[in-house]
Amino acid sequence: MACEVIVGSNGKALAIACSRNRVAACSVPECRRPHTKLCDFPIAGKASLGVPAGTCDAKLCDAHATSQAEGVDFCPAHHARSKLGKAAASTREVAP
Predict the structure, then answer these.
(1) Helix (H) or strand (E) holding 90
(2) What is the pLDDT of residues 21-51, one digit of tens each?
(3) Is 92 left (phi over 0), alpha (psi -120 to 50) or beta?
(4) 94/68 Cα distance (integer angstroms)
(5) What is the share, in percent, of the chain residues with pLDDT greater than 70?
(6) Cα–Cα distance between 54 and 70 in angstroms, integer?
(7) For residue 66, which of 25, 34, 39, 94 sits 20 to 30 Å off, Cα-Cα?
(8) Domain map of the chain by residue range?
(9) Using CA atoms, how far apart are residues 57 and 78, in angstroms rounded to an integer?
């Protein structure tokens, strides 16, 4: 049985909540919210090692998931990476 201490705004424990069916927490450090989504950023496989291509699959809560399209969410690191890629591509498209 997994238990969690619920702390009030004054920093003191208010309650201890225990559950038999614990949902994995968001993978963002210091976030303890339950995950509701997975990162869908594409990850290249390594055929030589027998690892197929897939997605990041980092566990994310609603606050840390960034929607890219309907049903497609990125973790904070991959969202930043995708924005950098788009910015670089847009500067390359401008012809002198």
Answers:
(1) helix 76-93
(2) 667 899 999 998 999 999 999 988 766 666 6
(3) alpha
(4) 24
(5) 75
(6) 18
(7) 94
(8) 23-93
(9) 11
Query: CA-CA distance, 62 to 60, in Å (whole number)?
Result: 7
Q: How many CB atoms lie within 10 A of CB 22?
A: 12
* Integer Cα distance of 73 and 79 in angstroms: 9
Evaluate whether 55 touches 38 at the Cβ level (below 8 Å): yes
The token pair at 92 is: 């390359």
Contact 17, 3 (CB under 8 A): yes
| Chain mean pLDDT for the chain | 80
Rg over alpha carbons for the chain, rounded to the nearest Å, is 19
Q: In which residue are the tokens 């920093």 written?
A: 11
Strands 59-60 and 37-38: antiparallel
Instruction: Out of 15-19, 60-64, 87-91, pick the least confident.
Output: 87-91
